[in-house]
Design goal:
12 helices; alpha/beta; Dihydrodipicolinate Reductase, domain 2; nucleotide binding; Gfo/Idh/MocA-like_OxRdtase_N; 9-stranded mixed sheet; Gfo/Idh/MocA family oxidoreductase; 6-stranded parallel sheet; Gfo/Idh/MocA_oxidrdct_glycsds; globular; Rossmann fold; single chain
């Protein structure tokens, strides 16, 4: 469990707000900035982006002061905690710099490109007594929490199998930039798949130990990474999860978000983007209502609770590392056409 920062524990009245700096102003940064603006416990004080004009556009909307580089933002006396919204291959270096400067971090998924560096990074934060929040925002969606609550209630009995599908046409008219570079993004199995592996392990209440996968380049042979993937995961409990991720469906407006959970006493079916779902048992069926909360705000609240009150983050550090390890096993399985073990 992360330890509460001594500064906040002893000086809550003098420091009522967590002063946050954001590195990287791509589209996901707007979601984080909106969450900060809506929270009574955080304020945005500093921004850095490698493109100064992008930083200024961001500041004109959300406030804060532009910093000349990431090191300047992290070391600033006006920054208590850092949100990292940069390409995946930069995450570890930026997080470790923040750790050396005694700053808490919320880092976008995936936290690292491979499990060894992910584990070393989270171990460093734990040893320093700093809060490390992995940006697995789907845990904080109404869907994610409703499914978890239903499973935890025991209404479905022992969970035996899960299917999670996220398929759509987001690739069109064409992917661009660092996401297409496997060396920078980690590829489709990591960059896009990591959300699903994390949900599968969380809902199964058991770590994933084996993976098999089929990766395909369906939309364009020039892509350097797969745009479609089906992974079968096996948990330590013996339960399984099928994760389907595609970005190249036609037409571009196509979007399917679906969850199926099968238990010994019942099943749950829910479309991700709907306002509800249904849980079935032998005795009855019932709806799962949605509350339409902002998942980025709930994720920020989890981070702030850990910083100010010493509460555990969600996901835990071990869960954050495991999602990267599962992605690594899925990537290896797609290449080898064999079942691969997940690194422990």
């Amino acid at each position: 469990m992360p330890r509460c920062s001594t500064r906040y524990r002893n000086n809550r009245r003098e420091n009522p707000l967590i002063r946050v700096g954001i590195i990287g102003t791509g589209f996901i940064a707007d979601s984080h900035a909106g969450a900060i603006a809506g929270s009574p416990r955080t304020t945005l004080t500093a921004i850095h982006d490698r493109a100064p004009e992008a930083a200024q556009r961001f500041i004109s909307r959300w406030g804060g002061v532009a910093m000349p580089d990431a090191e300047a933002l992290i070391s600033s006396a006006e920054v208590d905690a850092v949100i990292v919204c940069t390409p995946n291959d930069t995450h570890v270096d930026l997080a470790m710099t923040a750790c050396r400067h005694g700053k808490h971090v919320l880092i976008e998924k995936p936290i690292a490109l491979e499990p060894v560096s992910a584990r070393a990074m989270t171990d460093a934060f734990a040893a320093a007594g700093l809060v490390f929040q992995a940006g697995h925002v789907h845990r904080h969606t109404d869907l994610g929490r409703a499914v978890q609550d239903c499973i935890t209630s025991g209404a479905l009995g022992t969970i035996e199998a899960i299917r999670i599908a996220i398929t759509g046409g987001w690739i069109w008219p064409g992917w661009q930039g660092w996401v297409l570079d496997h060396q920078r993004s980690g590829g489709h199995a990591l960059h896009n798949g990591v959300h699903l592996y994390d949900l599968a392990s969380w809902w199964l209440h058991s770590p994933i130990v084996k993976a098999s996968a089929l990766g395909q380049q369906l939309t364009s042979g020039r892509l350097a990474i797969d745009d479609a993937l089906v992974a079968t995961l096996v948990a330590e409990s013996g339960a399984s999860a099928i994760c389907e991720i595609s970005r190249g469906e036609r037409p571009r407006a196509t979007a399917l978000f679906e969850v199926v959970v099968q238990g010994s006493a019942g099943s749950l079916v829910r479309a991700w983007s709907s306002d509800g779902g249904v849980a079935f048992t032998d005795e009855a069926s019932g709806p799962l209502a949605a509350a339409f909360n902002d998942p980025f705000r709930l994720q920020l609240d989890s981070w702030a609770d850990a910083i100010l009150d010493g509460r555990p983050v969600n996901p835990s550090l071990s869960d954050a590392v495991q999602s990267v390890a599962v992605a690594d096993a899925v990537t290896r399985a797609a290449r080898s056409n064999r079942v691969e073990e997940v690194a422990r």
